[in-house]
Amino acid sequence: MRILLTGIPSYLQRTVASASGATVRHKPYFDDIRSKKDVIEQVKKIANTGNYLIGEGAAHALKDHDVTYVPFWHLANSLSQPGAYDELSQAFDICVFASANLLRPGYSADLEASVFEKLKMPVVVMGIGIQRKANLRDDLPAGTQKFLDVLRNKESYFLTRGYFTSEFLKEQGMKFVRPTGCPSLYFNPDGMRQALTKIANPELVESQNIAFGGYLGSVADTIVDAHVLLKPDSTAHYVIQDEVVVYNMNIVGDDATPAYDAPSGRIVAPLDYKHQEKWQRKNDLHVFFDTNRWRTWASQLDLSFGRRFHGCIITMQAGVPSLMIAVDDRMREMLEFIGFPHLEANIWNREGQKKAYLKEFLSTIDAQATIDRYNACETNFRTALNDIGIKQPAAALAPQPVARAHEAA
Length: 409
Fold this sequence. Notes:
Residues 48-328 form the Polysaccharide pyruvyl transferase domain. InterPro entries: Polysacch_pyruvyl_Trfase (IPR007345). This is Polysaccharide pyruvyl transferase domain-containing protein. The model is unreliable at 405-409 (pLDDT under 50). The strands form five sheets. The protein has a six-stranded parallel β-sheet, sandwiched between helices. Strands 15-10-9-16-17-18 form a six-stranded parallel β-sheet, sandwiched between helices. The protein is globular. It has helices spanning 36-46, 51-61, 72-77, 84-91, 110-118, 136-139, 142-152, 163-171, 189-198, 221-229, 243-246, 291-298, 309-317, 329-338, 345-350, 354-363, 367-388, 394-397, 405-408; strands at 2-7, 16-20, 23-26, 66-69, 94-98, 123-128, 156-160, 177-179, 210-213, 235-239, 250-251, 260-261, 266-267, 271-272, 282-286, 303-306, 322-326, 342-344. By secondary structure, the protein is α/β, with parallel strands linked by helices. Helix content is 40%, strand content 18%.
């Protein structure tokens, strides 16, 4: 099948040089990232580096087909170009739109509505989810309602992040709706299963080589987390995703200031952000614009502990145990669907004896049940694609047996 993949991209979109009609030209290299300006521009292009995992997961799920990633900006720019959409319709059989929390009060999907209204082929919306679900039915922006109206009236398929989004879309009259989870969950199933076999271990509370994720620049929660787990002479490794453009984390210096060491993924310029003075541990801040480098770095860790879904998922893809702290509707919907063990932020933040609480929590995890649930979700995801007509390998529809959790630990 000839598939037009668009929407949230993998990190490979950084090589896109130009697009014309149904043809996309790539550079044979990545642009250097060194200065403060480079770092901020690269983060802005993806909005959140965790989004790279969504695009990568979507592309990987389609790998047995003839797939071309067409940047969404090119589809938008082509709206007024005569014949452009006719060329696209002749070149592709189906469009897969990699998405995330598109259904939210503060975002109007006018441009998406216009593109898919003009695109004369079936559309698969993969990974769609809801942000701030309270009153969404009353507060849905007009452009997003038009987007749903367009897709309701053409051949369309919705693979959602979880159950609540599925029910919402069914209420909107969508015909093919399946909760499948984020496509990033299925990029490296073997690594995910390895990580799940290791999480039911109370001794992880003594780990010192830990990646943290959260919202530095906004709240001090992650600093508290690091102080709970790390000894005074240990270093906290924190992974930035969008803080330098959203949460007032300022890279000190002018645009040309050397700020980034690409081989290590470290921010090397001074930083200025709210609550910075609360740190009582050494800390290194990292950011990654290449998911393979991110996974390679993560593979050397003992644990990932954090408030960012994809910051933990990429560590699990590398086979390293991860424990998430659910902070919002997006995370809760995805975690409820996939069944991963997690902490609730409002409970964890109030807990007075955090380390003892965490040790007890880890000791109660049923790793095998979690793996079984994950296997069922992966099969469900592959089956949904198969049902749409995007055929999956037989082996992917029946995951290989893995060692029982107690044997692999």
